[in-house]
């Protein structure tokens, strides 16, 4: 199994879904069932492997735990989430293995 970043190239507001699957086609098949895709007029999914992702212990399917997505190396940032470090609501949060979580409002 691998982690895949799945994107609908027709919808800029859609964002990216992380899916744990055996193949790209399976990742797209699992992602298309996600409720976030139901409003799209056009759907054209692209699935890209997250090469350095730690997927040990995860089950096949859509993976939505934002902080864990970053600590497991699937994404380096997430948009519109609450910062675990300073508590700022709905901001862009970055993750670095050495520095941990941060956002634009965190104190240096």
Report mean pLDDT, rounded to a whole number: 87
Q: Percent of residues in beta strands?
A: 25-35%
Shape: globular
Beginning-to-end CA distance, first to last residue: 38 Å
Overview of this structure, please?
- The protein has 2 helices and 7 strands, in the order ββαββαβββ.
- The chain has about 110 residues and is α+β, with helices and mostly antiparallel strands.
- The strands form 2 sheets. It has a 4-stranded antiparallel β-sheet, with helices on one face. The protein has a 3-stranded antiparallel β-sheet with strand order 5-6-7.
- A hairpin with a 3-residue loop joins strand 6 (about 90-95) and strand 7.
- The longest helix is centred in the first third of the chain and has 8 residues, at about 25-30.
- The chain is globular.
- The model has no long low-confidence stretch (mean pLDDT about 85).
